[in-house]
Amino acid sequence: MEMEKVYNSKDVERKWYKYWVENKTFSAKSDKNKKPFTIVIPPPNVTGSLHMGHALNNTLQDIIIRFKKLQGYNTLWVPGTDHGGIATQNVVEKLLKKEGKTKYDLGREKFLETMWKWRVETGDTILNQLKKLGCGLDWDRTAFTMDEERSKAVKKAFIKLYDKGLIYRGKRLVNWCTRCATALSDIEVEYENEKSSLWHIKYPLKDSAEYIVVATTRPETMLGDTAVAVNPNDERYAYLIGKTIMLPLVDREIKIVADYVIDQSFGTGAVKVTPAHDATDNEIAKRNNLEAIEVIGINGKMINVPEKYAGLSVADAREAVVGDLQAQGLLINTEEYSHSVGRCYRCANTIEPLMSEQWFLNVSEMSKRAVNAANKEETKFYPASWKKPYVLWLENLRDWCISRQIWWGHRIPVYYCADEEGNKTSCKPIASFETPAQCPLCKGTKFLQDDDVLDTWFSSALWPVSVFNWGSDENNEDLKYFYPTAVLVTGHEILYLWVARMVQFGLEFIDKIPYKDIFIHGIVRDKSGKKMSKSLGNVVDPLGVMDKFGTDALRFALAQAAAPGRDMQISDESFLAARNFANKIWNASRFIIMNLEGAGELGEIKPSELADKWILAELAETSKKVKAAYEIYDIDAAARELYDFFWTKYCDWYIELSKIRIMSQDLAVKKQVLSILIYVLKAALQLLSPIMPFITAEIWETLNGNYELRITNYGSTAADERQSGDKIIAESSLFVIPESFYRESVVEKMLAVQEIITKIRTIRSEMNISPAAQIEAMFSVLNPENEKTLNENEDYIKRLAKISNIEFGKNMQRPKNSALAVAGGFEIFLPLEGLIDIEKEKARLAKEIVLAGQEVERTNAKLQNENFVKRAPETEIEKIKARLSDAQTKIEKINESLRFLG
Hints:
By secondary structure, the protein is α/β, with parallel strands linked by helices.
C-alpha cells in the first residue's frame, strides 16, 4: 500500500508505456457490439524529430482517444509517417553532398536505394518519440505513405481519376522552385513581404515620340513582354488602346490592350504583360489571345533573350536590364516598394512562375461536394470560425498540379509506348498498376514510365482510407467499421494543404466524408508570443521538457494552454507549474493512501457533514463540465476545471477539513470520510487520466490493489454501483456521478463558510499575526439566515482560521485596535491587542507604504517616457503596468490596515 515519497516520473513513465505496448492496451479490432471512435494521426514526415507542434497535436489526439475509451467506445488511433517528398529528398541529397556526390552520380535506381536505406535507419525516430509522449496508438497498424499497401491505394486512386478523365497533362503556368527543381501547387507556396523597388519605365509607341510609362517590380521579365495592359475605364489611356509599342531592349512590337483586372491606382495604371511568368498576366493573355514567351528557364537562368542577357541569373539580369534602361534614358524613376513574394515551403527559395508540362487534377466537382458537405455540417469545424475560409478556398480552387520533378515519391503510374530506339510513340499513354504487357493500339511491348512523381499530398489525401487497406479491398471489414473517422486534429497551417484534399478524396472514392469533426488548434509560441525558430534561438525542445519536468507536466501545460484555434504562449514557468500540480496530485494521494492502513474494506458513501456534501456536489459539477468540454474539444477548459477542483477544492479545502476525522480513533468515522476521499480521488483521477496518463495510472494501480469501494444511492434513485479494482485506469469505465450529488444550497452554504475563513486568513497575513497564534473573533450578524449555517460549521472556521473562540451577536460594537472583515452575512471583528505590537506594526507599515510609493513613482515615470514606450517590447510594458498596479493595490491595503490599527 506504500507509495514513494517523491514522484519519480521517469520510472513511472517507462513502466506504464511498456505495459500498454506489451498488453496492447490501445489495439483495436472491429466489434459490432461496440461503437467505434477512430482517429488517424496526421503522419509526421520521416525526416522529423518531435517538436513542440508535434507534442501539442499528438497530446490533444491522445486526450480525446483516452477519454472516449473511458466512455466505452472501441477506440482506434492509427499511427504512421509520411515519406515527405521534397523535404526528405533534400535531406539525403545534403548527406550525399558531404561525400562530394549528387543524385545524378548515383542515378535514379541507386539513389532510391540510398533513400530507402536512410528511411529504414532513421525514419521511425519520431514514432519512438511519440511513445515517450505516452500516445495510445495501435502500433500494430503503423503505416507509411510509401509502403506496399499505401502504394496500392495511390495507384488505384490515380488510375480511377485518370480513367474518369479528371487527370490530364498540359503545359501551364506553374509555381517552380529552381532549388528543388520541381513544380509546386499553389498551397505549397508561402508568401512573405519583401522590400524591393518599383521601376517606372518608358515604353515608346511605334513611329511616334510618344510613350507610355509602365511600373513594374520585375524589370528583367520585360524581355518576355507581349503586351502592355490598361483598364478600359482609365481615361488617361483610352486613346492608346490598340496602339503598337516597340518593346525596349528587345525591339519587338507589342500591343496596348484593355483589361478590367488592371488596378488603375497601382503605379501608373499601365502594366507590362508577361504571360509566361505571372499568373495574372497569363489570364490577361488568354482573354486577349497573346503569345507567351518564356525568358526564365527551369534552372533560374535567362533564356530566349538577347545574347547579352542569356544565361544570367534572375538577379543579375535585373541589374543588367535596369542599367541598360538607365543608359538609354528609359528609366524615369525608382521608388521603394514592399510586396508579397512567394517562397518554396520546403527550402524558402523564391518561386518562379514558369510555363511547364505537368500533370493536373481537375478538382472542380470534388470541391463542390466538399463545400456542400461543410455547408450541410456533415463536417463540423471546432472552432466554427474556420469553416468560412475553408469554404472560400474550395470555391476558388484551381486544378491541382500533382506532378513533381523529383525521384523520391510515388512514381506516376503512366506508361508510354516506345519504339525500338526507346523513343515515345504517338500512342495514347496508359495508366496501369504495372508495366503493360502490350500496347492496345500498336501492339508494341516496349514501354517507358513517366519520370515524375506525385505530389506528396496526393498520398496524404488518401490517408484516412489507405490506412484501412482500401487499395487492396475497398469493402474490407476494417474500412466499413472504422471509416469515416470521428475527428481530425490538426493545425490551421495545413487546412488547405491536407484537410480539404482528404475531404475531396473521401467523397470521391468512398462517397463519405473522412471525418465528422475537424478540431483546429493554434501553434505553440514562446513566452513573448514569437513563433519558435532556430534562428531566434527560442525553440523549446519537448524531449528536454519531458526529461526535466516529466511527460505529464508537458502534456498538462500544453492542454491548459490549448484554446481551440488560438495560438498559445509557453515557457519553463508553464512546465514548472504543471510539475507542481503533478506533485500535488501525488502527495495528496499518498497522504490518503497512507491513512488507509488499518481501515479495512471501505463501504458506502455516506456524507455526514456539510464538507462531505459540498465536495460531492463540486465533483458532480466538475465532472459535468469536464465531460462537456472534452466532447467539444475544449481541452483547455477541461484542464483548468480539473486543476481548480483538485488543487483548490479537494486538497486545500476538503482534505484539510477532513483531517480530524481521518485521524480519528473511531474506525467508523475514519472509514466514512475515507470512503468519500477515495471515491472523489478516483473520479478525479479518471477525468485527469486523458491529460496526465502516467501519474494517474500509477496511483490508480496502488488504490485498486488494496480495496474495493461501493457507492450507494445517496440522493439518487440509481441502484448500488460497484466500482471494482480489476482494471487499469485506461481500461476502466468512466464513473457515472449521480446528478443528485449536486445541491445548490449545499454549495452556497459552503461558499459562505469559505469566504469567512479566507477573509480571516487574509487579515492574519496582512497584519503579520503569527500563523500559530490562536485568536478570538466577534461575529455581528447581518444576515440571520446565515447564522444557523455558521453555528453548524463553527468548527471548520475555528480549525482553518485558527480561531480559539467565536462570540455571536447583533449590532455589535467594533472593539478598539481590531481588524474588520465583512463576509458570509457577518461583520467580523478580530481584536489585535496583545497579538501584535500596535506601534511597531504601524511603523513597519509606514515604511512599506513609502517603498510602495517609490515603486509607483518609478513605474509611472517609465510609462510616461515616450521613448521607452516606443522602443520597449509589449511584454515589458505589460510587466511595468502590472508592477504599478501591484504597488497601488499594496498602498490601498496598507492604508486599510492602518485604519484598523486606529
